[in-house]
Model the fold of this input.
Amino acid sequence: MLQMIGVVWLGVVIGSFLNVCIDRIPVGQSIIFPRSHCMKCGHTLGVLELIPVVSYLGLRGRCKHCHSHIPLRSIWIEIITGLCFGGVYYLYGFTIKALMVSVLLACLIILAVVDWQYMLLPTAVIYTGLGGGIILYFLQAVMTNQWIGLWQAAIEGIIGYNLFMFLYYVSKWVLKKEALGYGDVRLMGLIGFFVGIEYISLILLIAGILGGIYGVILLIRRGKSESYPLGPFLSIGAGIVIFWGEPIMIWYLRNFY
Ligand SMILES: [Zn+2]
Done:
């Protein structure tokens, strides 16, 4: 129990770092320097303003210096990351697999929010995640002396990438415009590398349903079809599959086969 609380808190702290990445990566700032500051007035945050969740509540969601609103999103990211880490620990304990899933989830959280806000999937985040994944698979291979996992992951990443590349060209040809972004293709490569090929179709199905529902809502509210980012829906689909992929698969096979 104490370990679980520790892991969730670690997730919350990492979520606070993910917020820094979300704020800074799209505008081209370094994620390390300068120290954490208010995005409006530049006021450097003191120790008491850096405690995740607690500081936000203590400051009632405003900067101590200029009183501008700190986006509510920041507290949500911290809570979601904490819950994700708790879930990963519950499923995988302290293992390399748990680390891999955590790296993927952290990348997906950044990518989903940045894509939602800027319609942009920064390559730096995708390649960092991929690099982290390769190192961890390598470590696992060395420790267990089984190299099959690394090759399998590499092949599955390549398949995910090419599958989406195919969809990218087909949709461009059919719709005569870019329905999928090139970033989505890279994102599917990353997800395929970590999650495995058997789940890719399930992720696409979930993302398609959620994205479709959102598209309809958008159409009703705005009265015309508008383009919207796909990354958040792919990320949510991958997140659902990471935690509930197996039960969903079993349920599906039992009912439809
Ligand atoms: Zn400020």
Observations:
- The CA atoms of residues 115 and 211 lie 13 Å apart.
- The chain has a mean pLDDT of 90.
